[in-house]
Amino acid sequence: MVLVIFSSYYYSHHFSLLFLTSSYFQTIVTQINHAIGAEGVLSTECREVVTQYGDQIWELLIAGIQPDQVCSTIGLCLFNGPRDAGDIEMVVEKQNKKASSFGEDVLCAACEMAVVWARTELRRNQTKEIVFKYINELCERIPSPMGESVIDCNSIASLPDVSFTIGNKTFVLKPEQYILKTGEGALAVCISGFIAFDLPPPRGPIWILGDVFMGVYHTIFDYGNLQVGFAESI
Q1: Which of 55, 160, 186, 207 is deepest in the core (most CB within 10 A)?
Q2: pLDDT digits (tens, 9 = 90+) for 213-229
Q3: Would 31 be classed as within a structural domain?
């Protein structure tokens, strides 16, 4: 079981969200996702691109195919005309602006980043093995566009419960309650319900108990008395 204890909290003026504040809350999400084996969306897809398409990417770059056409050539991106694929920040920024970042969009973004890195290392006359070892290392450091982390759908049954202790009372979330599954079969994607985001002061850092928690526990906001109540949903 993963245990999260809130020793102090206060209530937001916005009834739709419960804000819990403490300087260490931003790190807890990372620790929870590590405990349940969740990984950043783009990190996972980046490694998949290197494993499955690395050889093709290498051969296309060696053959002189323009970098902005490589990912569309191997079927991971739709080609919408020439563009500059030389700026890795452009690739990440484009992905950050999308509300949904899964499926083909994620594979495309991961491919574009891998191509940028591979081309840069090719210009330095690095060997194929060194280039893809370096790219795999970079994959580990890619932040998810919206803070999402994915997990193997087949592992849900073996995941631990996550407990929140609020006001000396324990509220438990089971794996099927905190893992969000979309799609079926080979297209299924399972997303951790714990998402990190960076909200600078004075509003942050904060912890939001959102749909994952409120879907399991009925929540009543008593703004007049500055208190909130939880009860298990029926």
Answers
A1: 207
A2: 999 999 888 988 888 88
A3: no
Pairing, β 162-166 against β 2-6: parallel
- The pTM score is 0.54
Residues 129, 154 share a domain: no
Token digits for 225? Answer: 């008395």
For residue 116, which of 100, 101, 131 has the smallest C-alpha distance?
A: 131
Q: Is residue 17 part of a domain?
A: no
Nearest alpha carbon to residue 38 among 213, 196, 198, 191: 191
